[in-house]
Amino acid sequence: TFSDGKLYTRSKKRGNVNEILATLVQHGAPEDILVDAHPHIGTNKLPNVVTAIRETILENGGEIHFNTKLTDIIIKNNQVEGVVNNGSDEILADNVILATGHSARDIFYLLNDKGIAIESKPFALGVRVEHPQHLIDSIQYHCNIKDERSEHLPPASYKLVQQVKQRGVFSFCMCPGGIIAPCATAPGEIVTNGWSPSKRNNPYANSGIVVTVEEEDLEPYKQHGALAGLKFQADIEHNAFIAAGNKGDKGQFAPAQRLIDFTKGITSTDLPECSYVPGIVSAPLHKILPRAITRRLQEGFTLFGNKMRGYLTNDAVIVGVESRTSSPVKIPRDRETLQHPDIKGLYPCGEGAGYAGGIVSAAIDGQKCAEAIVSLKKP
Fold first, then answer.
1. pTM for the whole structure
2. Considering the chain, what percentage of its residues have pLDDT values greater than 90?
3. Helix (H, G, I), strand (E, B), or coil: what is residue 165?
């Protein structure tokens, strides 16, 4: 629902990338993704692609269950026997591919409560930063900021990375001509993400700027075991919700700060226009985020300003929080069989299990899990 439709993958070793791209084109994605260096579908086009994929599943005998929540996994003698939906509806099966995505916290809690092994894993957390697109264009294309970008040039993007105090500070999911979107998955939290329409023709450019979360950050949460990162993540999202003045469980105002103000630790007296539709509220993000994250972001933004002259400006606004870069939990599996090492027939899969980092890698991992099950059924 919240995806930008970027189809980048850093590793060609995962599987057949071209096969995934061809499947998306078959279901309505633009043919350009087969040849573009940085293929992109666009959030506006994704719903029709997903609908077409669903129709293909149905035509080939699959079933889609809407208004359905997995509430339990049936396991006997360390063997999967099916799942329970909506608290009582049993579906029996010898094999279950668990591909819930990186924000299905209830599944992590379910596995933990059932004593099924899960692990804490590294992730990253930070903010969304938004600049006027024409400013990024002027920096990247080395032209006058007042000049219009040539119609033959796409909206400029950027990719930034910096080591700050032995941690990575880096751009994530950069969206030229895009918007910042609310992406909370539960009441009482603020989560942001970015996306672009296929034409990337909005007047703003945004990107996640995030810091690697290390084990030392999770020390106050060690009593939560493998769920320490998840609890850390959830607390920051709730703090952002409160800081923006949202009440009870309602509201999606996001805390925001001008960029230079953030680097100097100053609460902004006013804010520039922003693409975030629910609205932004001036708040001290330098205090809302953990100190270790804040200090590295402040130094990182300053260093990014040295790399891209004009990037560090109070015409840019940061919006909190960008916290769902990847799952803070990993579900282990055997490298050969792809099954959970303790539960036969349970196949952790995709981003939620910690084995993918985007549309293409998740699709490849899904194929691998399905093929592993098929290979077991062959004589």
1. 0.91
2. 83
3. coil
